[in-house]
């Protein structure tokens, strides 16, 4: 019931491996984001020269040192803040049992969580191990071109594909994960590489990877843990060589780190990796990273902040942040027990988008494919619906900045974004609920004599308005049902406001 089969691992990497990877000089791409008052302003590449960075004497290029006081000064590449929307893909051996909180299935089973133990007792013979699921991870219907088309239709501008989750199985032919990777057992193909190629050949999206630093039951990790992190065999021989390999082979522009919370970043050698990534890697100019690099680092250090899954603070943050969330409540991987009300509706997604982007964040929407490589029609439908909404309202989202107000001071469920062109600022009011009456009161917006108000996607006349003592009153015309531009979250475009 709790048998614990550990897949055979290659441990032939020498103690010089990390230093060798770091010393290799490989070419490449860069950029920035800073906060001014309540807003973020992205700018072209102009790294901030702090006391803990090194400026090369002949090139003038900044080199970052492996310490947070230096690494945290690196500007965030502009593309990431402008993108606003990404797709997360959780896929692995856990997609075979696909039971409840799927990505943690192995750990839940081994630690005796009753539902998981009973599931195994009823459905699998005695002596069945977690590794026995791997040959059933077949991916026979996996079509990376189809996936790329679906993801592009959502309006997302980047994807984050799980290269390795906490189970340790790699979705690429890692040399450091013998017989526990997608080429050796299961699909018999490079799942990650095939998707990277499809994304780059068929879309304008950026390709990124998720990578778990730790592994549930890797014996090298457990040995280091037992030694209170005084030894680093797992880091030197397994997890860091994987990260360097991922970057050099696939050139991802997002590194979404996870599995960091048990050990400090000095154990993980995270800062050394990030210094190499920012200084010498093939994606040094364009890569973005998150904040999960060691115990105590989350929400403090790294690139953008994730803080915790589903982070949605409701106010502007001092640094760029991301809200990673699931389209199917309760599970990152495919869950066979999911019911219709488990899946978020379009209105749920547009609400999360408005709340997130108005406060300066990005939204990372997760899908969990099946073990045989299918994206369920309900996932595809939600993504395409979201993409249709973005086609109408994208100007309020892509490249937008938080306004002076994030939500309205009088009418609830109204969130604001803004776009600046020269000296002019256009404000977008995202209405999560269509007004019940023909007048909409906006307390945060003060009009000028030149103010215009229009509904994105509506081809009728501009809306009439009147200034009030508490802001402005917008006249909502009677719009025929078949003329409404979308089914959820309507966006008013306000120009020439006085505040």
Descriptive terms for the model:
single chain; 499 residues; alpha/beta; TIM Barrel; Immunoglobulin-like; 2 domains; 7-stranded parallel beta sheet; 4-stranded antiparallel beta sheet; globular; glycoprotein
Q: How would you characterize the overall build of this protein?
A:
It is a single chain. This protein has two domains: 78-396, TIM Barrel (Alpha-Beta Barrel), CATH 3.20.20; 414-497, Immunoglobulin-like (Sandwich), CATH 2.60.40. It has 13 helices and 18 strands. It has helices spanning 17-23, 68-71, 78-83, 105-110, 114-123, 144-153, 191-202, 219-226, 233-250, 265-268, 270-279, 346-357, 377-393, and strands at 32-36, 39-43, 53-55, 62-64, 85-89, 158-164, 206-212, 254-258, 288-289, 321-326, 361-367, 414-421, 424-431, 439-442, 447-455, 465-468, 471-475, 490-497. The chain has a seven-stranded parallel β-sheet with strand order 9-8-7-6-5-11-10. A four-stranded antiparallel β-sheet has the order 12-13-18-15. Residues 1-6 and 8-51 have low confidence and may be disordered.
